[in-house]
Amino acid sequence: MIVWFAGGGTGGHLYPGLAIARALTRLAPSVQPFFIGAQRGIEREVLPRENFPFELLDLHPLYRPRIWLNWRTLRGAVGAWSRLSALERPTLVVGTGGYASALALAYAELHRIPFVEQVADSHPGLTARAFSRGAREVYLGYPEAERYLPRKSGEPFFDTGNPIEPPPSPRPARTAARVGWGFPPEGGTVLLVFGGSQGARALNAAVDTWLSRDIPDSLYVIWGTGKAHFDAHRARASARVCVRPYLSPIADAYAASDVVLARAGAMTTAELCAWGLPMVLVPLPTAAADHQTANARALAAAGAAVHVPQAELTPERLEHVVRDVVLNPERRNALAGAARARGRPDAAEHIATRILALL
Q1: Is the pTM of this model over 0.85?
Q2: Which among 97, 103, 111 has a CA at the least distance from the CA of 83?
Q3: What whole-number distance in Å separates Cα of residue 212 and Cα of residue 191?
Q4: Phi–psi pair at 305, nearest 5 degrees
Q5: How many C-alpha atoms does 151 have within 13 Å on its Cβ side?
Q6: What's the rounded Cα separation, in Å, for the pair 312 and 27?
């Protein structure tokens, strides 16, 4: 049975599909995932390293501020539709969002091919909203997303959480993980800072200035700057500050940390909840439809995170957060408990089991 996975453009729309596909083939090796993405998306770099067959199409988003560029979207859609028609017909289509999934979902709807959606963010994007009414099932990364999605009477929505690579079982020993970063095995608090694989300029700038003023003796910092920003900040490394261009595998950093300062992407927050880590979230304000802010607000309302808008992220505000949250065990424990309650480490397997039932 062939199952199309349609989604991409960004990692937040591609990696959930990969996690579900891996779980699906573990549970049913006869299922054949086939990925459909955009030539201009992150999938052009990621999918060639995976074991799944794929097709990259000349797909474009809607150019809303520069509407005169939408001729590219139309031209690409016509050619991509023809290519979809030439592919072997699937039994089911899984849409994981973004402009890279819209055409495949439209193709499935027109040809009466069953499809499901995985919606990563608390405020769903345009594609998710456009096709939720026709989906057989919708899998929610955030339960808050349901209120924004059109639905037919009786249409099943499932609060599965976002499909991620779950924490290892058993979890790595925290003492060994700390030693791996050059910190003492016991005592003090470890703060993990990162802004995604590419880094975050605004977050890095605030952290750099804050570190220049010295940090509390009981605090240790793991800082993933992103490769492009590493040279500008590597001088802040010390016995208590470990600066890296990229955190891989990031599980090593999660295992050693007590608190995390990060962006509020759907996959990042899903991982942090699965690990039960308290979060200070600084959403990327230019994210599509400001969905990261919606994610941060949802987790803050659930008691799992502290939301700091990027415009308010000064070194002074960061120092206050460190004193009030990072170095406050009671506050950390409360945030961690709420994060664990939101965690869905088995989301990929749960979704794969639902898909197999449909197949």
Answers
A1: yes
A2: 103
A3: 16
A4: -155, 160
A5: 17
A6: 46
8 A C-beta contact, residue 46 and residue 21: no
- What single DSSP character describes residue 57? E
- Start-to-end CA distance of the chain, whole Å, equals 8
Query: Where do the DSSP E strands lie in 131-248?
Result: 138-140, 157-159, 189-194, 219-224, 241-244
Q: Domains for the chain: give ranges and CATH numbers.
A: 2-162+345-358 (3.40.50.2000), 174-342 (3.40.50.2000)
CA distances from 100 to 10, 18, 44, 154, 309 (A): 9, 14, 12, 28, 29
CA-wise closest residue to 252 among 169, 303, 190, 180: 180
Place of tokens 């979902």: 105
CA distances from 40 to 9, 10, 64, 120, 299 (A): 7, 10, 18, 21, 32
For residue range 275-299, what is the model confidence (pLDDT) as tens digits? 999 999 999 998 877 889 999 999 9
Q: Which residue in the block uniquely carries the two structure tokens 């959403």?
A: 283
